[in-house]
Specification:
Layout (H helix, E strand, L loop, with lengths): L1 H17 L5 H16 L4 H4 L3 H9 L1 H4 L2 H65 L2 H28 L1 H28 L4 H17 L41 H52 L7 H24 L2 H27 L9 H12 L3 H14 L12
Helix pairs in contact: 1-2, 6-7, 6-8, 6-9, 6-10, 6-11, 7-10, 8-9, 8-12, 10-11, 10-12, 10-14
Length: 414
């Protein structure tokens, strides 16, 4: 306080020397009163020696941020950078799968047209050779045989890779990668992303890469599996961080019972039905994939024996009719896209399996704060099944009464 008293005396003397004589008494009065008023001012920052330090912080904004805040900002920046990196990779995958899906769909159309054209041309040549003679007949027989052999080889390759099924896989991958892309954009727009979000998005991308691979050699999915299983393109469900909802997260006993009944309907009706249809589709596709090359192979043998004195009649029938039947089988298999139908059934069964696991995971989680919000979750389940909330609750009530005898399916979308 001595510093302030000294400054006050200096101020008083400067004021008294520069003022007029008529106001001399007033200045003296002020000089007497100023020290008393200053002594009553409390400046704790000055007593503990922090005044100059506070002034430095005010003049230097960088020092106003604590080290913890700086680290937090740096961490948020890194998390955002990682999310944007994943977003760029996902956008690139969407474009890749879209382009490759279009290419493989073109494969299906081009191979179908080419193989049928070759087969029918070979059957025509075999028929003409049967009614001709001499060198023209031999040339026609040889050409027909070569064309049948070529059609057999092409059919074997096409039936192995199933271009229509490959195109459906890429279409599913495009749709699912777009879902991840939208989820990342939602996280970024809401704000406050965490390292957990980055890890979750990375796991989803890698799981989807594994479920729908791009290469044909080595990692291609089995087109004729012995056991039909639902497609799986999501990572394993894990416990989420506690979000502090004060014990309430939109869940109650009634909602848990309803979700339990919805699981039962999905399991015994929707998923089971698509697995049953998938088994029929893969059995039919396997039969067609075997029959087509077999018919063209027999037609090749028949066209080679056209004109034979011992087997001439049967050779003509086999060479012509075999090629015609092979064209019909090929058109039904690849024109009808039986492989695509099987993949559609398999992916639909996977969709219901994902819903089943998601509901079960929330019901098994005893800590309500770690579950997804019950009201939001109920709305999402209703939207995924194409039902309103009232329809969803009515379905759960009906399932509770009828059990496995329920006739209605859970989904109204497909």
């Amino acid at each position: 306080m001595a510093t302030f008293k000294a400054s006050s005396l200096i101020l008083n003397s400067s004021l008294s020397s520069s003022s007029s004589k008529q106001r001399g008494n007033n200045v003296k009065t002020a000089a007497i009163n100023i020290p008393n008023r200053v002594t009553s001012i409390s400046l704790p920052g000055l007593r503990n020696g922090g005044f100059l330090e506070n002034m430095e912080l005010h003049n230097c904004p960088e020092k106003q941020l604590s080290p913890v805040r700086i680290n937090r900002n740096e961490q948020d920046t890194v998390v955002m950078a990682k999310l944007y990196a994943i977003l760029e990779a996902v956008s690139d995958r969407v474009e890749m799968h879209k382009n490759i899906g279009d290419q493989r769909n073109d494969w299906n159309s081009l191979f179908l047209t080419s193989i049928n054209s070759i087969t029918l041309a070979a059957a025509t040549m075999a028929g003409i050779a049967a009614i001709s003679g001499g060198a023209p007949a031999a040339a026609l027989k040889l050409s027909s045989t070569f064309m049948y052999v070529a059609a057999t080889g092409m059919l074997s390759i096409v039936n192995k890779i199933q271009p229509s099924q490959l195109a459906e896989e890429q279409r599913n991958a495009v749709r699912l990668f777009k879902q991840i892309e939208n989820q990342i954009r939602t996280i970024v727009s809401i704000g406050n992303p965490t390292v957990v979000d980055v890890k979750e998005m990375m796991e989803k991308v890698l799981a989807l890469d594994k479920a729908y691979p791009l290469p044909l050699l080595g990692t291609m999915l089995d087109k004729f599996p012995a056991d039909v299983e639902p497609a799986v393109w999501w990572p394993e469900q894990r416990r989420k961080q506690n979000k502090g909802n004060n014990g309430y997260n939109g869940w109650n006993g009634k909602l848990e019972e309803e979700m339990g009944e919805i699981i039962n309907v999905i399991r015994i009706k929707d998923k089971e039905d698509y697995l049953r249809l998938g088994k029929k589709a893969v059995s039919l596709n396997k039969y067609l994939a075997t029959t087509g090359p077999l018919l063209t192979g027999l037609a090749a043998v028949g066209s080679a024996l056209v004109g034979s004195p011992t087997h001439g009649g049967w050779a003509v029938v086999l060479g012509v009719a075999g090629g015609a039947l092979a064209s019909v089988v090929n058109a039904f298999e690849h024109g009808g896209q039986v492989g695509m139908v099987f993949e559609m059934y398999r992916s639909n069964a996977g969709f219901f399996k994902m819903m089943e696991e998601s509901i079960e995971w929330n019901l098994r989680e005893e800590d309500l704060e770690r579950r997804e919000n019950g009201e939001v979750f109920e709305m999402k389940v209703g939207l995924q099944l194409g039902r309103s909330l009232s329809e969803l609750r009515n379905l759960a009530a009906e399932a509770a009464v009828k059990g496995e005898a329920i006739d209605e399916f859970a989904s109204k979308l497909f």
